[in-house]
From TrEMBL:
May play the central regulatory role in sporulation. It may be an element of the effector pathway responsible for the activation of sporulation genes in response to nutritional stress. Spo0A may act in concert with spo0H (a sigma factor) to control the expression of some genes that are critical to the sporulation process. This is Stage 0 sporulation protein A homolog. GO terms for cellular component: cytosol; protein-DNA complex. Residues 126-226 form the OmpR/PhoB-type domain. The keyword Cell inner membrane does not apply. PANTHER family: REGULATOR OF RPOS (PTHR48111), TWO-COMPONENT RESPONSE REGULATOR ORR33 (PTHR48111:SF1). One of its GO terms (biological process) is regulation of DNA-templated transcription. Coiled coil: none annotated. InterPro entries: CheY-like_superfamily, OmpR/PhoB-type_DNA-bd, Sig_transdc_resp-reg_C-effctor, Sig_transdc_resp-reg_receiver, WalR-like, WH-like_DNA-bd_sf. GO terms for molecular function: phosphorelay response regulator activity; transcription cis-regulatory region binding. SMART domains: REC (SM00448), Trans_reg_C (SM00862). The keyword Ligase does not apply. It comes from the Bacteria.
């Protein structure tokens, strides 16, 4: 059970979220705006924050920026829940450090699934994961190859870390969408997974025709080839 705070000023949606979080077995605390949030933060810190963007007073982006700048809350995941569906807003939210961005209206089960994914990500993990010439630091989401830092996006790191812990396994695109993206569906019409695999390979200097790390399994998905990793 996790403690989840919800900052949402709309009564009906707030109640809906509250009920969904409780039904998923978590403790839920409802807050209406930044000033209530700040008051509460003087006493405690939640395990996850569900954050609306359009609020009276400070908006969600400002709250998020402060959240990620404060030492006590920087590592607490934030999921934005907003009616603003423009790509700009999503990108801004993710760049400010939100774990996920859910567009309203949303399904209760979708919210619960994405909540679980975000929470699973923050459960304590290895300090470092070493697989051949790669070193991954899940805390900081940083990767090194032969001691040189590889600049990865948030999702590229998650994808790499997921694959690297499953050497030799055939992993489907649907499984990656579910486990790495937290999507409730296994359909990938926009080829999100392939797109990210491609950029990951480019950054690792992995040739798909003669792969060292990631093998494409025709009609199936992908397989991690590099040596089995270990915690360090
Ligand atoms: Ca609102």
């Amino acid at each position: 059970m996790a403690t989840i705070w919800i900052v949402e000023d709309e009564e009906r949606i707030g109640l809906l979220i509250l009920a969904a979080v409780k039904k998923a077995g978590h403790e839920a605390v409802r807050l209406y705006d930044a000033s209530e949030l700040e008051k509460r933060l003087k006493k405690e810190t939640p395990d996850l924050l569900l954050l609306d963007l359009m609020l009276r007073g400070k908006d969600g982006f400002a709250i998020l920026a402060e959240w990620k700048a404060r030492k006590e809350t920087a590592r607490v995941p934030v999921i934005i829940l907003s009616a603003r569906s423009a790509e700009n807003d999503k990108v801004r939210g993710l760049e400010l450090g939100a774990e996920d961005y859910i567009t309203k209206p949303f399904g209760v089960r979708e919210l619960q699934a994405r909540l679980q994914t975000a929470l699973r990500r923050v459960t304590p993990e290895a300090q470092k994961w070493i697989a051949g010439d790669l070193t991954l630091q899940p805390d900081a989401r940083e990767a090194w190859q032969n001691g040189a830092r590889v600049a990865l996006t948030y999702r590229e790191f998650e994808l790499l870390y997921y694959l690297a812990r499953r050497p030799g396994q055939a992993i489907s695109r649907g499984q990656l969408l579910r486990e790495v993206w937290g999507y409730p569906t296994e359909d990938d019409p926009s080829r999100t997974v392939d797109y990210h695999i491609k950029s990951l390979r480019a950054k690792l200097g992995d040739d798909p025709a003669n792969p060292r790390y990631i093998e494409t399994l025709r009609g199936t998905g992908y397989r991690w080839l590099a040596p089995e990793g270990h915690e360090a």
